[in-house]
Design brief:
alpha+beta, elongated, 144 residues, Jelly Rolls, 5-stranded antiparallel sheet
Length: 144
């Protein structure tokens, strides 16, 4: 068995504001996962107004409630200074900082090791954020 290090950038299609389950989209763009016996997948989003997190993958109401809570905690009507890109921009930066720009996920037997009810979310904090780019770094031991 040999060590494996791979890195590639993937692009997620543009989505509306909200919390979106992207686990399948990630795995579809990373067939290299199948080669890893044991390892780690690091995901890093290249944007300051969107974020990544892991949460409930079964009930879509959770994603709606996550958006509701974050809008309550960081409303757009705060007296913010950075407003040149619109009222949703600075709140988006704050929300992205709260959740974070990266995830590290264990890999075993060619699959991400996620709990039964866990999925990867793209947290789109802008009304019109556009396509989002993620750097995927895969490290581990080959299956072969």
């Amino acid at each position: 068995m040999s060590n494996l290090w791979q890195q590639k950038q993937i692009t997620l299609r543009a989505r509306e504001r909200g919390f979106h389950l992207i686990t399948r989209e990630i795995t579809d763009q990373l067939p290299e996962l199948l080669d890893v016996r044991i390892g780690l997948l690091h995901l890093f989003i290249l944007h300051t107004s969107a974020s990544l997190t892991i949460n409930e993958n079964a009930d879509p109401d959770v994603r709606i409630d996550m958006e509701t809570v974050f809008n309550y905690v960081v409303p757009e009507d705060l007296p913010l200074v950075h407003t040149v890109e619109g009222p949703d921009d600075m709140p988006a930066h704050v929300k992205a900082s709260m959740l974070g720009a990266s995830l590290s996920i264990p890999i075993a037997g060619g699959q991400m090791v996620l709990g039964t009810w866990q999925g990867i979310y793209l947290c789109e904090h802008r009304n019109q954020g556009g396509p989002r780019r993620i750097v995927c770094t895969l490290m581990g031991e080959n299956q072969k």
